[in-house]
Amino acid sequence: MLRIVCLCVILGIALSAKPEIGSPHCVSVLATDCSTYSPEPVCAFDGQTHVTYQNSCEFAKGICTHHGHSLHAVHEGPCDPATDTP
Fold first, then answer.
1. Is residue 72 a contact partner of residue 45, using CB atoms and an 8 Å limit?
2. Which of 51, 47, 63 minimizes the C-alpha distance to 10?
3. Element (DSSP H or E) covering residue 72
4. C-alpha to C-alpha distance for 47 and 72, rounded to whole angstroms
5. Which strands make up the sheet holding 72-76, listed edge to edge?
6. Which of 60, 81, 56, 82 is CA-nearest to residue 71?
7. What is the pLDDT of residues 2-42, one digit of tens each?
8. pLDDT tens by residue, 74-85
9. What is the arithmetic mean of pLDDT over 42-71?
10. What are phi and psi for residue 74, nearest 5 degrees?
11. Which Gene3D superfamilies does this UniProt record tie to the protein (predicted)?
């Protein structure tokens, strides 16, 4: 049940524009224990660099902590320096 709630929160953050770190969505996501999620990497881009997050939970936390930068998922799996270039 908690995972379903967290996934709904993650979806809400992903669909909103630059969530504030103190917003209810971010407070909930930042308090989540991401170690309980499957290790399914997400490659993301913040407009400057590509970053691999361990799972969707860590990616959601990244969205909340990228102050002033939009963070977008590029693809599932780790980033590849050979193909994931700005």
1. yes
2. 63
3. strand 72-76
4. 9
5. 50-53, 42-45, 72-76
6. 60
7. 454 444 455 554 544 556 667 788 899 999 999 999 999 99
8. 999 999 987 777
9. 89
10. -95, -45
11. 3.30.60.30
Distance CA(9)–CA(25), nearest Å, equals 6
Long-range contact set of residues 47-51: C-beta below 8 Å, sequence gap at least 24: 48/86, 49/86, 50/74, 50/79, 50/81, 50/84, 50/85, 50/86, 51/79
Unique residue bearing structure tokens 């770190």: 21
* Residue located via tokens 């963070």: 71
- Give the residue from 55, 63, 57 showing the smallest Cα distance to 21: 63
Structure tokens at 61: 């936390």
Residue with tokens 């994931």: 84
**In the numeric block, which tokens belong to residue 47?**
């407009």
DSSP letter for each residue of 57-74 = HHHHHHHHH-TT---EEE
